[in-house]
Amino acid sequence: MAKSNFPTIEPVADSTATSLSARYQLTTGRAWRSTTHDMYIGSASELTAAGIVRPEQLPGVEGLPPTGVTFYDGKMVSRYQRCKHDEKHLNIVRRGRGFLVRIGVTAQVRVEREAIEKRQTEIWSLQYEAQDAAERAKAVSDREIRLKKELAECALHVIPQSAGDYQSGLIDDWHRHAIHMRDSISPDMTRYKIGDYEIDSFGCGFSLDESDMIEFDALVDEMKELLTNAKVRFNAQKQKQTIANCQIAIAKGDDKFQRVLARLI
To answer: Comparing C-alpha atoms, which of 254, 258, 256, 235 is closest to residue 246?
Structure first.
């Protein structure tokens, strides 16, 4: 077979490029490239009309293998022969009713494309890292929103509705603290009740004198009496603001609210 000059494909810069690959891409939409080759897929008529191959180079014609053929510098190369994949390399493989054509590029073009590919890989890596960081930040934010929602629901549940409720809450809190304190100063195992649970505590080996414990019990009772008879002040505006803040936190933690917010953003 006589030596022939195969087309050297220039990089496609934009849609107005006049290179062979650009024209074929615009015509068929089936041209792409790797770092080592320009590749085309199409029918025999499309590929020959575009000047990518000649009819006598297509697999299946007289003297050529039926499924695929490789040329180097215009000469057919056996599948068992090695050849360089440079601008003199041409590989044509049958694909269904058409063909896949791979044309090698010059060393300079390969270096340029490898640099572009490396830079693109770096960009993709940075984009992936940025996306991953954003997703992790969003996950943290979502957890904080859910936590605030749960805390707000608890806060609304325990907000006192009257001065009596407020005082009862203070007395209950003081009673719980006093029990723990009483346990820590007692020399013996103490069994006490919190809610529906009875808890045993075995002490730490240290304790206060019995006379001091009696005085402690008297102070506990005195503190309860003080809380029971104390004058209570009420800031309605403060409570209103607290309830509003809780409702906002609960709304933000609602899935439906988040979906609406995502659409608005």
So the answer is: 254
